Amino acid sequence: MMSALVDEVADLMREVAAREILPRFRLLTDGDIEEKSKGDYVTIADRDAELWLSPRLEALLPGSMVLGEEAAAADPKKLSLAQSDAPFWTVDPIDGTGNFVAGRETFGVMIALVNKGRVRSAWIYFPLSGDLAVAEEGAGAFWHSGDTVQRLFAGRSANDVSRISGAFNVRFMAEEWRDRVELFADTVPRKSTYLCSAWDYVSLARGAHDLVTYNRMMPWDHAPGSLILREAGGVLRSLDAGADYMPATLAAPHLAARDEEGWQRFAAAIRNAV
Length: 274
Prior knowledge:
Layout: H1 4-21, E1 33-37, E2 40-43, H2 44-60, E3 65-68, H3 69-74, E4 88-95, H4 97-102, E5 108-115, E6 118-126, E7 131-136, E8 140-145, E9 148-151, E10 165-168, H5 175-185, E11 190-191, H6 197-205, E12 211-216, H7 219-231, E13 235-238, E14 251-257, H8 260-271
Parallel strand pairs: 3-4, 10-11, 10-12
Antiparallel strand pairs: 1-2, 4-5, 5-6, 6-7, 7-8, 8-9, 12-14, 13-14
Helix pairs in contact: 1-2, 6-7
């Protein structure tokens, strides 16, 4: 049974998408777009959506704070929240901003509630379709599409390497891990390039992908998907230390997989790649 909080946050996501995001899709002007760093975009829709969401989320849980991607970009000291035991919300107002800027449909809105260092609740919303993935710790993960609600089960990863599907994000990896991941990726014939964590994690949780790799582990990018994947039976764990993902970890080579057996098999193949 999902709590009332799940519906309240979902309603906020739908409203902010209708107010700040969808009216700007494929209508951005040059003045609406900035580059925070090479290839890392922010738009007026990102900023206005985060500004609209933040006080409303904090009001849902008195004493909580918001760790938003754009606020942290403006003031990196805000990332210290990820190291605390205090309750906080992670907000990625538009995950896949580069896709949004390019007019591609692969973007989403992501929110998670973290308390005492653990992800307790998670939401990934796709404004164009209205589809929503939600999870609460210990209560399962669910996919809402139209009037249909289905429990998410990631299922088992493919055993035949020719049937494996994955995404390989290596941009921020140290050379040692990047080389190993790229060597393994060369053996995987079915690769995706969503460039959007929201799409990656939901694809895993719905059983459409077998694995995804990451290294830059900002909480707004990974806290929501980590819980949805875990509650669907999947795994997100570091390749070097073998530790399950925690929001306090900001950078380390990570592997996400549909199931434990698949994680172990893919991790071994990556670690042994030469």
